[in-house]
Amino acid sequence: MIKSIYVLNYECGNVKSVSKAFAHKGYKVIQDSSMKIPNESLLVIPGVGHFGYAMKFIKNNNLDNPIKEHYYNGGRILGICLGMQILFESSEEAPGIKGLGLLKGNVKKLLNTNKTLNKKMHLGWSKTKFENGDIHDMYYVHQYFCDPNEISIVSETFNWGNLDLCAGIKSKKIRGFQFHPEKSSKAGLDLLNKF
Amino acid sequence: MRIIGRLDVKNGLLVKTINLEGLRQIGSCKEFALKYMEENIDEIFLSDPVASLYDREPMFDLLDTITDDLFIPITISGGIKTIEHIRKLLLIGADKVAINTAAISNPEFINQAVSIFGSQSIAISIQAKKINNNWHCFTNCGRDKSNKVLVDWLREVEKRGAGEIIITSVSKEGMMKGLDFELLHLVSENVNLPVTYSGGFGEINHLNPFKDIDFNLSGLAISGSFHYEKVTVNQIREKLKELDFSVRSL
After folding, report:
1. Nearest to B42 among A24, A117, A125 (CB)
2. Is A93 a catalytic residue?
3. CATH superfamily of the domain spanning A4-194
4. Does B87 lie at the interface with A, CB-CB under 8 angstroms?
């Protein structure tokens, strides 16, 4: 069977880059505005944008219910960058605005803890530690990071000052990446094989 | 540090500029972008340096063609004037947009863009030139002096939420005679954002002054020396490693 993905188009995603990357790996890519998400498809939520704007768009266009239905009917979800962040309950980027809340925890601002860091934005290729102990450089561009209540769902980490922060999550039917696999060249594309 | 291949475009073709002027044609943008990806470049910077001068739209079609096969980050600049421009560019595969002229003529545009697309998508491109001992910001390929003094403008765009500064030294650009360390120093002292520098690289020894400077440059954009194969991405990577910069390991 050909594996398929349904890419959420919510104006805050690099829909094309994500679609092309999955297509490159042989997936059938479904990309429309029907929100009829086949339950066997992986729902991919890309993300480039502002938490508050993204959630308002999702609410105003009633996209939250189809996402939740897909999930509660056993469907799988992959969130990338902001697409992972909105799966949590809230974000310091947009105080008072609720996330989708499929995962417990919040999204916090990166602190400039160390002058030698890339200052207040995490931008560029950073060493990422995977579950199996492998380390690959992946591409990041973000100012906020996910802080799940349950540490056990953190599957990948990146280093920020003296902290190891969440670079990826794995929780039942949900997978998430803070980095951009679709922009991380071969190391990133290879990750997409595994869905 | 990110090693960035800078592609300056005119009429869909890759060109080489000198002091951001005097355009010489080199070849197909897409071919160069894909070649650089194969050589493990960290990012592509696609620029139409005279878009605002001729009131051109951003290069939607070219970006769309390139991102069909490009699986590394790409930043685009030139002619970005509206929220709709940014939305469309991000949708077809840009990771960041870099804004110069429109930010200078309407600084509030930065705040608007950040509130929708987040800081991480919005870079401010600055063309800097020193006149009578003062650094000023220019537009239209370093032709037109704006009313912005560099140091004030850096602080202002940071306050307005920009996520990155992409700075070009107009007088060094295209000369291949060395980077503008005076400018680099000034920028790093006055802004708390990732800084990408462009202009003047011509040979590997031009990076040596980094030995004696303790700021962490986020990106180095190189155009001519890559296009004319004077240096390879790998040579730059090895040199930066030697200079104690953290670079992507392959």
Report:
1. A125
2. no
3. Class I glutamine amidotransferase (GATase) domain (3.40.50.880)
4. yes
Residue B67 within any structural domain of the chain: yes
Q: Which of A12, A70, A81, A156 is catalytic?
A: A81
Q: Which residues of A touch B161 (CB under 8 A)?
A: none
**Whole-complex ipTM:** 0.90
Is B196 within the bounds of a domain? yes
Is there a domain that residue B247 lies in? no
How far apart are alpha carbons B186 and B146 in whole angstroms? 19
- Which CATH number fits the domain that encloses residue B196? 3.20.20.70
In a domain, B35, yes or no: yes
What distance in Å separates the CA atoms of residue A73 and residue A66, rounded to the nearest whole number? 10
Number of domains making up chain B: 1
Instruction: Place B212 in a pLDDT band, splitting at 50, 70 and 90.
Output: confident
Average pLDDT across chain A, whole number: 92
- Residues of chain A in contact with residue B95, where contact means CB-CB under 8 angstroms, are 14, 17, 48, 141, 180, 183
Taking the mean position of all CA atoms in its chain, how far away is CA B89?
16
| Average pLDDT, rounded, for chain B | 93
Question: A110 is written with which tokens?
Answer: 């990166």
* Closest alpha carbon within chain B to A187: B250
Burial profile B33-51: b = 16 or more Cβ within 10 angstroms, e = fewer: bbebbeebbbbbbbbbbbb
Whether B183 has its CB under 8 Å from any CB of chain A: the answer is no
Confidence band, pLDDT 50/70/90 cuts, at residue B13: confident
pLDDT of residue B54: 85
- The answer, for B83 touching chain A at a CB cutoff of 8 Å, is no
Host domain of residue B167: 2-242
Nearest chain B residue (CA) to A183: B72
Query: For residue range B17-75, what is the model confidence (pLDDT) as tens digits?
Result: 777 776 778 889 999 999 999 999 999 999 998 787 888 999 999 999 999 999 999 99
Domain ranges (residues) in chain A: 4-194
* Burial class (CB within 10 angstroms; exposed 0-12, middle 13-18, buried 19+) of A38: middle
Neighbours of B149 (CB within 10 A): 13
| Model pLDDT, residue B55 | 87
Ranges of chain A whose pLDDT falls below 50? 116
Task: Give the mean model confidence (pLDDT) for residues B213-242.
Answer: 94
- Per-residue pLDDT of B125-175, as tens digits, reads 999 999 999 999 999 878 899 999 999 999 999 999 999 999 999 999 989
